Every structure is written in structure tokens, then in C-alpha cells.
């Protein structure tokens, strides 16, 4: 079935628009359709009243723009895939290492304790860590002194205020920081062990066992 084009009839913008909206049409398909219509129109145009050059140039520019966008999407998709692969490889190197993430848990077992930490956006002149048991009772207060902005990691020796050894179990640490008379935002950090890497989701995540999962950007420090 042919397409009839009259003398000096302008290219049908509706045809081009509907073609560009179709999910099955590529930039190459649209270019072929455009060229077919253009040749037909040139064959049938009135020599005394030729096609408007500015309109032709605009239509060609639109087709070229669509082609460029299609190529850009393909390139971005390739880059995205490379980034995901790179993240997976980077994450795999953390297996068997400890990391510090947002959290307030401290574990005590067999005379050892897991590290705790703090992330400060502003340097402090006074910083205090308060450790409580599972019932909310304060069992130890540690003066950390003044700290610079950034991530800091500390160890609790596992002793209580009276000098005795803390029973095995889970404890919670709360951080209070100030600069002079100004209270600062202090994010407590908890220790987690990287036991594996999950790549089945849209983004690569670290398997932290009982601490759940975390992405690479959620890791504040590698121990």
C-alpha cells in the first residue's frame, strides 16, 4: 500500500510524532520513514514553489536529536553496568573484615567487646559515651574528650563502673558531644562483620549477619 503525497504538501508531523512515541520504533526506523517521505515529496513538489528549507532543516535536526538521545541512553546503560560490576568486586574484598556502620550496639562475650564509634560533623570540646545494659541501666560512662570532625572508633574494656566484668550480652552506647555550650549531633557507630556480598538485588549489599545488610556508602570505616 503506497503513501500519496501531493504537490508541495508538508511532511506529516503526526506520522513522525506517532512513530517516535512507539516503543518498537528506533531512531534508524524514524530516519528511514522520514527519508522515504522526503524523497516522495521532492519528486512531487512544484518547481516554482519549492519546499521551505527551514522546515526541512528543523525536521532533520529533530531526527538527529532523537538518534543522539538513543545512543546516549545506550552509553549510560553500559556505564551503569560497569559501575555495578565494580561495586561487586569492591564489596567482595570486604568479606572477612569488620566495618563500622550507624548503630548503637556493643556486644560482650568471653571477656571481649566489639568496638563502638561516633561520627561528628563538627569538632567537639567534650564527648562522652554512656553504655547501658538491656534493661536500660547505665553500667559505664567513658570520657572521650575533645574530638575532631569525622569518624572515630573506640574500645570498651568490658568493665563496669564498680570495676567488675560485664556479663556477656548486648549493650547500648549513647554519645553526647558538645562544643563549648553548644550541643552537637553525634551519630553512634556499631561494629559489624562482613560475611558475604549480595548481588541479587538492584544494588550490591554487604551481608552483615545478625546486623542485617548495608550498602557500601553506609560503611563509615573499615577495620
Automatic annotation (TrEMBL):
Recorded coiled-coil stretches: none
Gene3D superfamilies: 2.30.30.910, 2.60.40.4070
Domain FlgD Tudor-like positions: 86-220
Keywords: Bacterial flagellum biogenesis, Cell projection, Cilium, Flagellum
A Pfam cross-reference name: FlgD
The FlgD/Vpr Ig-like domain, residue ranges: 110-180
Tree of life domain: Bacteria
Assigned protein family: Belongs to the FlgD family.
Protein name: Basal-body rod modification protein FlgD
Taxonomic lineage from the root: Bacteria, Pseudomonadati, Pseudomonadota, Gammaproteobacteria, Enterobacterales
